[in-house]
């Protein structure tokens, strides 16, 4: 299952945007209002839970300074990645596209598609506001 967010225009340079996302504690600012728990576990891992949903631990899987950051599920039960592709628009602006990619059976994909779509849309919208 592949889901892509609308492009978020960020009033930061490509490097500043990358550094913001690379500091996992900043994801707290991007989370939806219905966040129930958020905890940075290490420099490379954080845990979050939305109300009524199980806790999810994300960890850095791949880093390409200033261009791309890939986070992935720390558990093999729900294998997925969340990728931020960062493009420089000008000296003071960048653009971020978030994409979710996961391997799920048809039933699971049907159940989580709408919540995941809404979740990455919220991350993208909140990123444009920072």
Automatic annotation (TrEMBL):
InterPro entries noted in UniProt: START-like_dom_sf
Gene3D superfamilies for this protein: 3.30.530.20
Protein name, per record: SRPBCC family protein
Annotated source species: Maribacter sedimenticola
Lineage: Bacteria, Pseudomonadati, Bacteroidota, Flavobacteriia, Flavobacteriales
